[in-house]
Queue: 2 jobs
Job 1
Amino acid sequence: MAGKITLTIIKPTAFRNNNAGAILKMINEAGFKFKALKLVKLTSGQAGLFYSVHKDKPFYESLVQFMSSGPVITALLEKDNAVNDFRTLIGATNPEKAEKGTVRYLYGTDLQQNAVHGSDSDENAIIESDFFFSKIERF
Ligand code: ADP
Ligand code: MG
């Protein structure tokens, strides 16, 4: 059975461009509940750890630099079928290929600066939630 949680990050450019409010509203209106939420600035070490599955990819260094370039909002979200429904809400990785009306279509500026992160599996949703949130930060 599909899990009920997913982890998102509103990436530095989307936050800097004042799109966080609109994105959080879209998330809420799509039926996700906020179980945890905070504003943080990652060090390059922390961003590197978060994206360690991509460490052999050509875009890794640049991605780590980007993700540690400014504050981000991260949230633990709850909904039935959370991982898949959230990826539908945000659209394809490349904003140019994302469906109209999706978060990445509306707020992504390029393949790297694609506005938001979304977990890719139930297993990673748990790992990523544990990366950001302690027990007393979850509701
Ligand atoms: P997703 O975020 O859709 O799960 P991936 O896990 O494949 O996508 O990649 C993680 C992040 O790395 C993407 O959201 C994007 O910011 C960046 N990225 C992915 N592919 C590329 C690429 N070819 N060039 C630059 N950045 C990329
Ligand atoms: Mg991914």
Job 2
Amino acid sequence: MNNVNRFDVITIFPEYLAPLNLSLIGKAQAAGLISIGIHDLRDQTSDVHGSVDDTPYGGGAGMVMSPEPWGSAIDAVAELVPNEVHELIVLTPAGQKLTQELAIELTKSKHLIFACGRYEGIDVRVSDFYSTQKNFKVREISIGDYVLGGGEVATLVIMEAIIRLLPGVIGNPASLDEESHTLTSDDGALVEYPNYTKPKEWRGLSVPDVLLSGNHGEIAKWRLEQARIRTKNRPN
Ligand code: ADE
């Protein structure tokens, strides 16, 4: 399978992406499993103020990000990975909702480019233009029905959801098979069953006997049942 190994993020706040150097993703970079470039959109501006936005045509509140610096920045990062289809991810609350299924799908593109909009978003012609380019695939993605200050945090969320799925990133890949939204039953995706570790008793609460029984069949049955109950009782 073709797995993603190059990520480029375009933002006006490069420092926002500093957590990509920590933990799992930091280790994946150090091990050479992935490489990540963070790019300041303002490097693509020509005026002394480094303007990246302007008032919306048609009027209304807020500012819209101008297409010119975005076009220059996207063209420049595409050149870093020649002869590939670039998947351009535009973060917006209006986009396709992130799910585990979508994260899995995104692992299959070689090169992901994240466009972090701020203000009222990016002039839509940026998405429209790259949608017509045969070496680009454009996706608008939302991480949920709420409005953030910009796409940077959404990028961190999406990148973590993708990168932890890549071969070699998680020490024990079996742990990927039994987690929320990966577990399935006839009724569809399930959230994960409850987990326990030592001690057997804690503040008057005990570990269910079945988990101490050593009977793997019974344990699997109990876990599936618990996952079903949790899924059914989840508030949304
Ligand atoms: N930008 C602002 N809000 C967002 C959201 N919910 N998802 C993705 N990008 C965003």
